[in-house]
Design goal:
It is built from eleven helices and 15 strands. The chain has 327 residues and is an alpha/beta fold. It has two domains: 2-122 and 297-325, Medium-chain alcohol dehydrogenases, catalytic domain (Quinone Oxidoreductase, Chain A, domain 1, Alpha-Beta Complex), CATH 3.90.180; 125-267, Rossmann fold. Strands 3, 4, 5, 6, 7, 14 and 15 form a seven-stranded mixed sheet that branches. Strands 10-9-8-11-12-13 form a six-stranded parallel sheet, with helices on both faces. The chain has a two-stranded antiparallel sheet with strand order 1-2. The N and C termini lie close together (11 Å).
């Protein structure tokens, strides 16, 4: 089979090689799949360079999350052969390949009638946004929701889920095309953070109320503005730091405004007894998908040969929504 391999750590533009390798064999707690689709993630750029939290050692195939048909299972695994499953890859045999391994305890079944690109995006991207907004953020209908990077992967999912929940959604994005993308997803308001004074604009939109829930995968300067925008008893959900800078949230400010700062490490739920949280979100996402209330924001698909260009576009913030690998 063909797989992208990293034999020496480095930027994907120099470290990735498309090679013929043996099919992966599942060990205990692992599932072997024929890959149908997988998310193209910024985290895999870091993985190739050896600066991501998972460091499998070379050689390895990146691709941290993927979806496909189960062909084999390892000892002690009760996932049925022949079903479609999505899950987190069992490195070093990641998803940027024709076949891959999944960690069995992360696997969720995906209905066969859902297109594979949609299925893989519903898995982790929409899961992250759903758990962040509802399990952590407690979002309610009628509340003001601020979504940073609303044209990005988890951001676009958060916009759609917020709209479906009846929230008043404000999205931020960089540039007029991405602002238009957020509005196309259903956001009631979208702001170009390159041109606008975010604090003044959002306070005016909310008539001085501020935002009840903030979904922040950006951090940096946006994170500092966000804390100032929090309404009384607001919930600021920290998703990540795409800006590269980790913000600070002064405890006296949290106390005076009586808001909460909540972290979300979605991938760790299954490691901390949180499988029920994931399954509840999964059921609700399938319900919303079948009702037409959400539609995974897959803006492009690429084959194996197209992966390096897709990673480059993602790194340079030229991507809206999700790019999905379809081997």
């Amino acid at each position: 089979m063909r797989a992208w391999r990293v034999n020496e750590l480095g930027h994907p533009s120099v470290s990735l090689r498309l090679e013929d390798v043996a099919d992966p064999e599942p060990g205990p707690g692992e599932v072997a799949i024929r890959v149908e689709a997988g998310n193209v993630n910024f985290a895999d750029i870091l993985l190739c360079q050896g600066i991501y939290q998972d460091r499998p050692g070379v050689p390895f195939t990146p691709g941290l999350e993927t979806c496909g048909v189960v062909e084999k299972v390892g000892p002690g695994v009760d996932v049925p052969i022949g079903v479609r499953a999505a899950g987190m890859s069992a490195l070093p045999r990641g998803g940027y390949a024709e076949k891959a391994l999944l960690r069995a305890h992360t696997v969720l079944p995906m209905p066969a009638d859902i297109p594979a690109p949609d299925a893989t995006v519903l898995y982790s991207t929409y899961q992250t946004s759903h758990v962040g907004l509802f399990h952590r953020g407690g979002l309610q209908a009628g509340e003001w929701l601020l979504v940073h990077a609303g044209a990005g992967g988890v951001g676009s999912a958060a916009v759609q889920l917020g709209v479906a929940a009846g929230a008043k959604v404000i999205a931020t994005a960089g540039g007029p095309d991405k602002v238009a993308h957020c509005l196309g997803l259903g956001a009631q308001h979208a702001i170009d953070y390159n041109d606008a004074d975010l604090y003044a604009t959002i306070m005016e939109l909310t008539a001085g109320h501020g935002v009840d829930v903030a979904f922040d995968p950006v951090g940096g300067a946006a994170g500092d503005v966000t804390r100032r925008l929090m309404a009384w008893e607001g919930r600021l959900v920290v998703i990540g730091f795409a800006s590269g800078t980790v913000p600070s949230y002064p405890a006296n400010h949290i106390l005076v405004k009586n808001y909460s700062v909540l972290g979300l490490h979605w991938g760790a739920y299954v490691e901390h007894g949180g499988r029920a949280v994931i399954e509840t979100a999964h059921e609700d996402l399938l319900r919303l998908y079948r009702a037409g209330s959400i539609k995974p924001d897959v803006t492009a698909t690429v084959d194996l040969e197209g992966l390096p260009a897709a990673l480059e576009a993602l790194e340079h913030r030229k991507v809206s929504g999700r790019v999905v690998l379809v081997p």
